[in-house]
Write a structure and sequence with these properties.
With 344 residues, this protein is of the alpha+beta class. It folds into 4 domains: 102 residues, no CATH class; 36 residues, no CATH class; 109 residues, Band 7 domain (Tetrahydropterin Synthase, Chain A), CATH 3.30.479; 60 residues. It contains 10 helices and 13 strands. Strands 1-5-4-9 form a 4-stranded mixed sheet, with helices on one face. Strands 10, 11, 12 and 13 form a 4-stranded antiparallel sheet that branches. Strands 2-6-3 form a 3-stranded antiparallel sheet, with helices on one face. The longest helix is centred in the last third of the chain and has 40 residues. The radius of gyration is 39 Å and the shape is rod-shaped. The protein starts with a helix and ends in a 16-residue tail after the last helix. The N terminus is likely disordered.
Length: 344
């Protein structure tokens, strides 16, 4: 049971086979020669038949007509490819290979120009248009689906995802968006293993962004814990890795993936802002107090070492208190100068 399942999965995966096509200019000359030659032959048969009407048979026209039709059919085999474009060759449903070289080419005219049709997004076609098409006998399927070309772009593409509202590792709702840079590497997988590889990339990218956001906290974590805001490079690497795992089956390579927007959701943004402000004030206070204690310690040590004044423990405590008030106060201190003795 498992063996059969694995065999079916293996068969469903396509692998690109690069192939070549015939030079289009040489085939164009040959096809035009056939087209003109068949036309001349057809005219010659008709003229000869007019001169010898008694001996003329309509069946004599058949070879010239067939040659003319063959030349017209062969003209349909020409196609062009721009740099970083490829065309998958499909002959009556069978994959024959991929042409990657740019230029003017000729191949079997019976190779398919499209590789299927996919449904359009809901709401893209109005019900009135569908009814009008049915009334004209066109069929609703022509409006509700779109064809997929056999020519695929190999260029590097990017898109900026929509702002998604997700919960981070601690359950806080955050808004997140990312830019994804990608390109098609395996044309066979992109064309045959997924329905529409462009739509597949967008949907899987959204799923990967949501999953990555749930693995990290926004900006608070335990010691050495990665967060979305403070570990941008690590989060980008994790997002790229997950996207690559998801998009391998579509023959797509992720060049880069990075967060472009990160913020708390509107309902908790104010509360989180107050928390951040409080943390900033506490951090600033800690630094101020640490600096003030260091300055007081230095002042007492210098006074003691240079014998400027001898202070008992009570006076030292009073001096420490005054210095801390001056150094840690938010407003400028206004000292009271004592012109008498310290021991008054």
């Amino acid at each position: 049971m498992n063996t059969n399942t694995n065999m079916n999965m293996t068969k469903s995966v396509s692998n690109e086979r690069e192939t070549s096509a015939i030079n289009g200019w040489a085939m164009l000359a040959l096809n035009l020669a056939l087209l003109l030659g068949a036309a001349v032959w057809l005219v010659a048969i008709i003229v000869s038949g007019a001169k010898h009407a008694n001996e003329f048979s309509p069946w004599w026209l058949l070879p010239a007509i067939l040659l003319e039709l063959l030349a017209l059919v062969m003209l349909c085999g020409h196609f062009t490819l721009q740099p970083n474009e490829a065309r998958v060759l499909i002959l009556f449903g069978a994959y024959q290979g991929t042409v990657r070289a740019s230029g003017f080419w000729w191949a079997n005219p019976f190779y398919a120009r499209t590789r299927g049709r996919v449904p359009l997004p809901p709401g893209s076609v109005s019900p009135e248009a569908v009814k009008a098409a049915v009334a004209k006998g066109m069929g609703a399927s022509s409006l509700l689906t779109r064809p997929l070309s056999a020519t695929l772009s190999l260029r590097v593409r990017n898109f900026n995802s929509e702002k998604l509202k997700v919960n981070d590792k601690r359950g806080n709702p955050v808004e997140i968006a990312a830019v994804v840079v990608w390109r098609v590497q395996d044309t066979a997988k992109a064309a045959f293993d997924v329905d529409d590889y462009e739509s597949y990339v967008h949907i899987q990218s959204e799923a990967a962004i949501r999953h990555i956001a749930s693995l990290y906290g926004y900006d608070r974590g335990e010691e050495h814990e990665l967060t979305l805001r403070e570990s941008a490079d690590e989060v980008a690497a994790a997002l790229r890795k997950e996207l690559q795992e998801r998009l391998d089956k579509a023959g797509v390579v992720i060049e880069e993936a990075r967060l472009t927007h990160l913020a708390y959701a509107a309902e908790i943004a104010q509360a989180m802002l107050r928390r951040q402000q409080a943390e900033a004030v506490i951090a600033a206070r800690q630094k101020i107090v640490h600096g003030a204690v260091s300055m007081v310690e230095m002042a007492l040590r210098e006074l003691s070492e240079k014998n400027v004044v001898q202070l008992d423990e009570e006076r030292k405590a009073a001096m420490v208190s005054n210095l801390l008030v001056v150094l840690c106060g938010e407003t400028e201190a206004t000292p009271v100068i004592n012109t008498g003795t310290l021991y008054q």
